[in-house]
Amino acid sequence: xxxxxxxxxxxxxxxxxxxxxxxxxxxxxxxxxxxxxxxxxxxxxxxxxxxxxxxxxxxxxxxxxxxxxxxxxxxxxxxxxxxxxxxxxxxxxxxxxxxxxxxxxxxxxxxxxxxxxxxxxxxxxxxxxxxxxxxxxxxxxxxxxxxxxxxxxxxxxxxxxxxxxxxxxxxxxxxxxxxxxxxxxxxxxxxxxxxxxxxxxxxxxxxxxxxxxxxxxxxxxxxxxxxxxxxxxxxxxxxxxxxxxxxxxxxxxxxxxxxxxxxxxxxxxxxxxxxxxxxxxxxxxxxxxxxxxxxxxxxxxxxxxxxxxxxxxxxxxxxxxxxxxxxxxxxxxxxxxxxxxxxxxxxxxxxxxxxxxxxxxxxxxxxxxxx
Length: 371
Fold this sequence. Notes:
Elements: E1 4-9, H1 19-33, E2 37-43, E3 58-64, H2 69-72, H3 79-82, H4 87-93, E4 100-103, E5 120-124, H5 128-138, H6 142-161, E6 167-170, H7 173-181, E7 188-190, E8 210-213, H8 219-233, E9 240-244, H9 249-255, E10 261-265, H10 269-278, E11 281-283, H11 294-302, E12 305-308, H12 310-313, E13 323-324, H13 328-339, H14 345-350, H15 352-357, H16 360-368
Parallel strand pairs: 1-2, 1-4, 2-3, 4-5, 5-6, 6-7, 8-9, 8-11, 9-10, 11-12, 12-13
């Protein structure tokens, strides 16, 4: 089989500053290290994003415009799919017979137009129908909520109509089971996220604060931050730092009610890494159980104690080196307990299983085996 590989990204993969981009960026690097000659294609709809840092890993790089919402109308498919059906992309892919990795359900609308759909492996970042349904539940803006609900309905129908012979590379065992049982896909493989963290960088000892971090423009992340403030840290005398992009007026106002809450807006990647390492506890409740939470993996490979809920670890195969709590009272009790306990060499050793599972080169070889 040829060593050439087309990779089609739903977004420009650089900078790797959010979950999907992190997975795509470091997957490209790992696949290149296995000897793949990568032809990279991506949809360019954000001036601040590009393929910077991947030039040496790719034989060629092509960018395509994503259709606007109005140019994609009428919607017979989900907008995230229909807006990424590009004639130029299809024509370029059909010039050869090289295998194709489609990053996200978003890119799968081109499959019926390919000269051989068996060339395709589809990387599933989420059960998108469930993800958009959850976004609708947490969104306060009426127009956005209606859009998320409509998109969720279209996605559910669309996922049922996809060719069931396509190989799916799933990053969550939970989603993998859903695609098998609810949608009838026959070829599903668990391929964990690709990460920038390939060694443990954890400081032993103690910190003096807890940390929640995430993109706070995402409604479920803001919901998690508010839940921590109002349901957990309002009841204990422990400092909480909330760091992330796009802190809203609502979050700013809520934080003024608590003396132990500090907000850090628009931290750089390096600042986030420093905050994760210095915190005594990374507190990361998840409001949905689709996909895998990269901020949780960051905390486990670089931070001291970590607390999440069942949603946070579901489908990830992570079973050691983390506390899993559900009710606010349980969170408060565990935080108070862990604040008194140093993070030891034994605690660090418990995280080695996570490092082994999320090994980029090992998972790149697993992915190569799907063609």
